[in-house]
Amino acid sequence: MKNLKNSWNRLKKSLKKNLKKVKEEHLIREYAKNNVLFLVFIFTGVLNSTMLRFFCINSTENYLAIAPILADLAILIIVGGLGYLLKPKNRFGYYLGFSIFFAAICLINSIYYTYYTSFASVSMLSLTQYIGDVGDAVVEQAIQFKDLLYVLAPIILVLVNSRLKKKNYNKVIEVKSERKKKALKTIGVGAVLAIIFLFTLTPTDMSRLIKQWNREYIVMKYGIYIYQANDVVASIQPKINSLFGYDQAKKNFNDYFKDKEEHKKNKYTDIFEGKNVLVIHGESLQTNLMDLSFNGQEVTPNLNRLAEEGMFFSNFYSPVSVGTSSDAELMFNTSLLPTKSGTAFVSYSDRTYNATPGLLAEKGYYTFSMHGNNADFWNRRAMHKSLGYDRFYSKEDYNVTEENTVGLGINDYAFFDQSVEKIKKIADKHEKWYGMLMMLSNHTPFSELDKYGDFPVDIKETITNEDGQQEDVTYPYMEGTKLGNYFKSAHYADGAIGELMAKLEEEGLLENTVVIIYGDHDARLPRSDYNRLYNYDKENDSVLDEEDPNYKEYDSYQYELGRKVPLIIWTSDMKDTDLNKEYTNVMSMYDVEPTIGNMLGYENDYALGHDIFDIKDKNIVVFPNGNWLTNKVYYNSQKGEYLSLTEEAVSEEEIKENSEYASALLDVSNDIIVFDLLKEDQTDENRVIENQEKGT
Ligand code: GP9
Ligand code: MN
């Protein structure tokens, strides 16, 4: 203790002494005088990047954020510090070069943001064929007066330099060792700032940087310069991944499809041929919502009604990876699985996909997608083109106000309302259409309780008290839990589906339309909340003890299996037909394309999933981590354990075969995307046709 006190006193004394020295000898003034160019470079660089953030992101959180300033400072000081290795006469050129470079980053992002409400990515350079479409519009609409402010940074540097030149500032002689010392000291300061910045980061911040798709978040946390550098790395990575192993991948691909049996007709073939299709991408909707009621009110009455009137696939899974929503879209539309690293939407948007929108477009359909969020979220602006959508309506096409915003953006009610108006126009113009409406309100963290409306998730009862009188009591049950909030949010989103269906009906848009609703992935809620849901002890407002005879175990397997999402295929006249029932065979999101393709009359020759009416109870759902599920068994590949789901014995042979199948499926899917094998395949076919035409 005494030692600590002594050291503290010594530290105080030395700090005081140094400060006094700095004051007496005017060291700061002296430093500033000798390092004008460096300081102007740093100051204008930080100012530009801060200005960019302030102009683009209007939130108090952003205005008060220190972290991005720290990050910008660290980068600029390190880059600026390296300049000290040069002779003084060469430094101006160095600083000017970097100042132009950093100002260009800010300028490009500023213009890009005005036009697209997102930050720029070098991966967009590969989409230059689309730039022609928007180039003129960018010049006319997106360049604003504020953008010119960024150009001031290099101009100020030039002006300052010309003044300094008059004082022969750049003629100072500095020996090599002196320059090295100066550079090291400066870089050291930058490194210390970088370390302080690293301490401000949470695991979420780091994982978002790796994924690099939530661009606004990254800029707000890391500043524009780190964002852009990271963007370059993220854009190059897929190119590196596809450099090696093409031949092996192509061979495996050929072997995989060599023995694939041709799809046989079944009783569902072409039953929906020529119909319009409206897909509803249900954000975070899980199947277990459909079984729940609170105080006599169903959580999802509209989903339940549609499931009752249509084809309800009750054992349906969405094996997403880190690409969550976008992986669900990928699987649904292409019958491929998520990639092993990165995400198909972000890293491989320039690949060839045999996707439902493109395949239906070939059959004369007008295809479109609609989503109330920023178009660059999950890189949809680029990827929806690759999937073959004729048009992607995003935030830019909607009237989004503060009042109609819930969570990530426009609420599902307003979104559907405005979408129906657009669909009406599309239906007037096009004979057949395929559209996907992507919901947004029911997105984690499910915290906008005041906007969801009243849906108590407690237990209300009338009891007879000790005096024999009737008394109303309320047990909190799921109130205040994350799962409880999810129920409120899901109830709200379900209400929007109800309104959408009513509006579509009113407009006559359901007459010749197949509606397909899917939950995109589970809501990733804590298992302990489920334990409370199934084991609530209302008398004590707690969870039943494991020893209690009424205790229902909700172990990790149940949790995994409980992550299923609904799939409903519905038409207005299905209710009285034999299509209207529950389908219980296990099925995956990547089985949808072959299943609905059979019904609508199109086929993806390289689908990795199956028509569920073909494969029936033999289906296997493969998850990106190698786990798999059949009607009989759920296998956990990490632990090498399985859960038997029927009385039937599970053989080792079966486990081995299915595990090999899972691994081959994941490999071939990854190869198709990384090595762009569908494009190559088409090229091969074209080559054969060309050769035949040439008579060779
Ligand atoms: C974003 C929305 C949500 O536009 O689709 O994406 P998620 O976070 O669920 O992947
Ligand atoms: Mn989602």
List the helices and strands and how they pair.
Layout: H1 2-24, H2 27-34, H3 36-56, H4 60-63, H5 67-82, H6 88-116, H7 128-142, H8 145-149, H9 152-166, H10 176-199, H11 203-211, H12 215-241, H13 246-258, E1 276-282, E2 293-294, E3 297-298, H14 301-309, E4 311-313, E5 316-317, H15 324-334, H16 344-347, H17 356-362, E6 366-371, H18 380-386, E7 391-393, E8 405-406, E9 409-410, H19 412-429, E10 433-438, H20 449-452, E11 459-464, E12 470-475, H21 482-506, E13 513-519, H22 527-534, E14 536-537, E15 542-543, H23 556-561, E16 567-570, E17 582-583, E18 587-588, H24 592-600, H25 612-615, E19 621-622, E20 628-629, E21 633-636, E22 641-644, H26 652-674, H27 677-694
Parallel strand pairs: 1-10, 1-13, 4-17, 5-18, 6-7, 6-10
Antiparallel strand pairs: 2-3, 4-16, 8-9, 11-12, 13-16, 14-15, 19-20, 20-21, 21-22
Helix pairs in contact: 3-5, 3-6, 3-9, 3-12, 5-10, 5-12, 6-9, 11-12, 13-26, 19-21
(2R)-2,3-dihydroxypropyl phosphate (GP9) binds at residues 324-325, 373, 377, 408, 440, 443.
